[in-house]
Inverse folding.
């Protein structure tokens, strides 16, 4: 689980199951037809619809609706319940969880989106964090690294050839974000207090966590390439887990057993 992977993303099987040793990552496009957006909007909660309306730009509003609607649809696949019935709560640092009244409390999940693409990670009984970024020029990458990366990471970053620094920057950023999302600390855990590997071609690893010599060994870290020009990182509690990568179908999904259409009719 230490090397970057280019995996074949396929539709999920009809008999989708998730054991405690399985880790499933889903990939989907946030740009969806208007009919699908209406379906997704209809399964959101009142507070999610209110959040959607607060977006200034229409594209951001639509992406939020699709992102949350897909999360509900995917979790509904595992729990065999209608997506609109799911209830969410949030940890002290904002990490989403299934609410106390929802079935399937053993499910853990996390999501990340960038430039029209979204990834969802789902596990059972294992904490999980996922982060996704599209590689793009960052004019002040060196200054950002100096502020947020550890001393060791900065030394590695400065030693890289200029042509590798853009990919390396996003490798480091996604791996650090995925870790703090997995532990649920949010900004309470400074990014410069732990080290990850990130040089292009280097196996992805959580190397060291300041103040806890055993912490790094608790987690598996994996780099993913979900599409050309993107990098992603997955952090999962424990080791020995199996990864499967699924593609959310663009059209009817009844043949996979994951039905968005199992909803009340849209007015």
């Amino acid at each position: 689980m230490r090397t970057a992977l280019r995996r074949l993303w396929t539709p999920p099987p009809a008999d989708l199951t998730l054991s405690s040793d399985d880790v499933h990552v889903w990939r989907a496009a946030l740009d969806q037809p208007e009919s699908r957006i209406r379906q997704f909007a209809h399964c959101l909660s009142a507070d999610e619809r209110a959040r959607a309306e607060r977006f200034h730009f229409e594209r951001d509003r639509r992406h939020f609706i699709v992102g949350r609607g897909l999360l509900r649809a995917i979790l509904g696949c595992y729990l065999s319940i209608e997506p609109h019935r799911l209830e969410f709560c949030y940890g002290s640092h904002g990490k989403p969880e299934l609410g106390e009244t929802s079935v399937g409390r053993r499910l853990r999940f996390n999501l990340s989106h960038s430039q029209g693409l979204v990834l969802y990670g789902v596990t059972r009984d294992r904490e999980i964090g996922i982060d996704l970024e599209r590689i793009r020029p960052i004019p002040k990458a060196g200054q950002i690294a100096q502020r947020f990366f550890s001393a060791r990471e900065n030394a590695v970053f400065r030693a890289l050839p200029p042509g590798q620094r853009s990919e390396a920057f996003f490798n480091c950023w996604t791996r650090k974000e995925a870790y703090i999302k997995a532990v649920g600390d949010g900004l309470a855990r400074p990014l410069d207090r732990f080290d990850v590997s990130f040089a292009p071609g280097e196996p992805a690893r959580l190397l060291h966590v300041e103040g806890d010599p055993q912490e790094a060994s608790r987690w598996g870290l994996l780099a993913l390439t979900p599409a050309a020009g993107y990098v992603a990182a997955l952090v999962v509690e424990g080791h020995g887990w199996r990864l499967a990568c699924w593609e959310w179908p663009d059209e009817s999904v009844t043949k996979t057993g994951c039905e968005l259409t199992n909803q009340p009719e849209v007015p």
